[in-house]
Write a structure and sequence with these properties.
Number of helices: 7
CATH superfamily of the largest domain: Fructose-1,6-Bisphosphatase, subunit A, domain 1
Structural class: alpha+beta
Largest sheet: 7 strands, mixed
CATH architecture of the largest domain: 2-Layer Sandwich
Helix content: 25-40%
Strand content: 15-25%
Mean pLDDT: 95
CATH class of the largest domain: Alpha Beta
Strand order of the largest sheet: 3-4-5-6-7-8-9
Low-confidence stretches: none
Shape: globular
Order of helices and strands: HEEHEEHEEEEEEHEHEHEEH
Length: 279
């Protein structure tokens, strides 16, 4: 019976991945209408509450994805950066988690490293996720039990066995603290504005470790979490705990991503760095 249920879940996840991947690509086409490589976006820009920018492109993509995906999954809840949160989602077993444009500041400045990020969550964990970077022509996608892929080709995490000289993406202060706590050399990768893209590049092996400072949200990481998992990586908090989605609180503390074999060392160094910082 268990194997039959698992097979059904895999089939559901793979089917969902086809739908959300196509939706992400079409959403990317909408966003690209206002993207100007190396130049300021042509889209209208205003500040949200708190001061962060939002463009007309963010809102157009959000509307498109809301209409399409809510129609495709009428029983699922909805959580998007650009839609007011409705806690009715908490009563749903499944949840669509969307960031219409992850890396809005990059988008409006003409930097191509922004993404459309979509995940389907079931019982608190993602079962399908896509991180699509339209201006780069990169699509990272994964579904539960179906593997992770970049533009259709299978991807896997780095096989690096130790922290020393690992290539790390994330805030420079976090990288420095991790290196000092572990007593190793770490190489800081150039900054990647989209957190979803940064984590996806850990899944592909382009980065050994990905770090996120506190205050990322479900929509920033849920899709990448699925891709990391299927590529042989872990995304955890600083206690080594995997993330749960569709909770009242959508915001997270500092996060760590690396291959499963490297994760214990990363978590241990992060915990030591926090202790030293508190002291």
């Amino acid at each position: 019976m268990t194997s039959s249920i698992d097979a059904q879940l895999r089939a559901r996840a793979c089917s969902a991945l086809e739908e959300i991947t196509d939706a992400a690509r079409r959403a990317g086409e909408i966003a690209l209408r206002d993207f100007r490589l190396g130049e300021t976006t042509s889209a209208h820009v205003h500040a949200k509450h708190g001061g962060s920018p939002v463009t007309a492109a963010d809102l157009a993509v959000d509307r498109y994805l809301s209409e399409r995906l809510r129609a495709a999954y009428p029983d699922a809840g909805w959580l998007s950066e650009e839609t007011a949160d409705d806690w009715a989602r908490l009563d749903k077993a499944s949840l669509l988690v969307v960031d219409p444009i992850d890396g809005t500041r990059a988008f409006l400045a003409g930097d191509p490293r922004w993404t459309v990020s979509i995940a389907l969550v079931l019982d608190g964990r993602p079962i399908a996720g896509v991180v699509h970077a339209p201006a780069l022509g990169e699509t990272y996608a994964a579904a539960l039990g179906c593997g992770a892929r970049l533009d259709g080709a299978p991807i896997h995490v780095s096989a690096r066995p130790t922290l020393d000289r690992a290539l790390v993406g994330g805030p420079k202060s976090m990288i420095a603290s991790l290196a000092e706590a572990a007593g190793v050399e770490l190489t800081a990768a150039p900054r990647i504005p989209s957190l979803a893209l940064r984590l996806a590049r850990v899944a592909s092996g382009a980065l050994d470790i990905g770090l996120a400072s506190a205050n990322s949200h479900d929509w920033d990481v849920a899709a990448a979490d699925m891709i990391l998992s299927e590529a042989g990586a872990l995304l955890t908090d600083t206690h080594g705990q995997i993330l749960r989605y569709n909770e009242k609180r959508t915001r997270h503390g500092a996060l760590l991503a690396s291959g499963a074999s490297l994760a214990p060392a990363v978590v241990a160094a992060a915990r030591l760095a926090l202790v030293e910082r508190a002291a």
